[in-house]
What does this fold into?
Amino acid sequence: MRGSFQLMKSVNKKAVLNKIRLHGPISRANIAKETGLTPPTVTNIVKELIEEFFVKESHLGESSGGRKPTLLHLNEDGYYVIGVDAGSNTIEAAVCNIYGHALLRSENKIPKTIDSEPFLNIMIQTIRTLLEDETVQPDKIIGIGVAMHGVMNIEEGISYYSSNSGLKNVPVKSELEKEFGYEVKLENNSRALALGEFWFGGFEHVNRFCAINVGRGVGSGLVVNGKLIHGPQYVAGEIGHTVISVGGDLCTCGNRGCLETFVSGGSIVKRAKEQINHAPNSLTAEDVYHYAVEGNEDYIRVLEETGYYLSIGLLNLINTENPDTIVLGGGVMRSAEFLMPILLKNIREKALTHKLRDEVNILVGKLDDDATLLGAAALLFNEYF
Ligand SMILES: [Zn+2]
It folds into this structure.
């Protein structure tokens, strides 16, 4: 494998590195105090971390008269990851640093129907464009993270099935590793979005974190104690296919009345057309939002209903998983101004206990369209920190 990045074998070293990541800029003395390690041990480990390009010194600390203390923070130029977001229409890739900044980007369109081999060729080309740019040294790249819609085996890095594109059994990991020689990790797009928000959205201190991707479908990801939860069949936390109306509309999964059939972009359009006389035939979910912004009460009502339905799904999740924080992302959340007031009101009224109602934190993600891409990059960082 290319790259000089080594797994953190020492528990103490990992503890110091994570202290700096989560609490930096921080002094050596405070690291010792907060980790319980002796000051000489911390000094030795920090020396190694600086030599290995993980950590940097700065002199910005508060001074109480004398010399300013030296503080430590992560080295933003130490290592990079290539994140790849393979969406329905495009494959986007970026070189990202440990702070979630994308230094270089490339993007290619993909046809609506496509087979595995041409799909992988477009992905390889998108990544190759980044590597041909000489801004980033190839040996500073520690691997490639790929996010894709659908069901996948993350150990073997095979995407089994995607209902969006019809792709089946795509051997993403083996093909990209053969092509580029970097370690490759594959993840479902909604789980990647969750990891992206967790790592780079300011939630890295949350113990039970959940993110929900509300777009063409409804996907979700749970991050517990810093790690994505999958379950033995990789469906942990999939609230999009929990049933909220017995005998309801047919869902893409084959069941009826799933949350997804109430809140996905397509279902918002379907409801708007059913409820609103003279709704244009070509109506899209974006149009619904724009009409609502213009003050059209009918469209506002459709979006408010969507917020209510989403709150029912979230209540199921809140009452079963008891997350500290839920972040909502994806295209539908661009209508957050119409969805959120009703959603929050219903949860504050109906979550199982009063403490839960008061304390569960529900908000809209900050990373917008980049959450999945950055989450794909975080797949590799998450491995080592
Ligand atoms: Zn379903």
